[in-house]
Amino acid sequence: MMSATGAVPRSAARRRRATARLGRLAAVVAASAALAVLPALPASAHNYVVATTPAKGAVVTAQPGTVSLETNEALLDVEGGSVIQVQGPDGRYYGDGCAVVDGPVATTQTQLGEPGEYTVTWRVVSTDGHPISGTWAFTWQPVDGIALADGSDEPGACGDTSAAAEPEASAPASESEAPDETSDAASAAPLDALWIVGGVLLAAVAAIVTWLVVRRRA
């Protein structure tokens, strides 16, 4: 109530100031709870492919010399953990399958043979310690005069993607084996979503609790 002179009682003014302060506190608590889970998001996801050479679906007319893939983060250089297997339309293998890791890029040396569609099957170790794998394809249409390689009936020394070494922290095969680079990114999405939902729920709970305190004191 207002006094006869129209002034607001001091007790009412104090309550309004206290309520305003608690309201600001609720906003700060909610924002802090949401931000607290954000640093954990990148660590929860596997690497995913951002580029390949040759590109998926590309038509190659000159010997590429190398075949490589690049992921969004640096890969782990684990002995026997990185394999890039190149197989031609004749079913033969080209190159020894051994891949060299340089940061986020894994590369293998290869010379192609019979023209047609080539399939690249790869396996690398993600920055979080989990092996990831996949495939992509490109078309080989050499111009006249290009020397062709003979290839091999069997994968090279490092060509067995199923037997690549796994670090101690690796995931079960059902989690780490993906059919292509698109599914590798998709496999990380549900885990990211769980972190995001958890952060939102935590922020909501913090806001509700603070609001109840404000309401009770008001």
UniProtKB/TrEMBL annotation:
Domain of life: Bacteria
GO molecular function term, any single one: copper ion binding
GO biological process: copper ion transport; response to copper ion
Extent of Low complexity compositional bias: 161-176
A Pfam family reported for this protein in Swiss-Prot or TrEMBL: CopC
Membrane keyword on record: yes
Subcellular location: Cell envelope
Membrane-crossing residue ranges in chain numbering: 193-214
Keyword Acetylation (UniProt): no
Signal peptide: 1-45
GO CC annotations, alphabetized: cell envelope; periplasmic space; plasma membrane
Domain CopC: 46-139
Keywords associated with the record: Copper, Membrane, Metal-binding, Signal, Transmembrane, Transmembrane helix
Stretches the record annotates as Disordered: 151-185
Protein name, entry field: Copper resistance protein CopC
Protein source organism: Agromyces mariniharenae
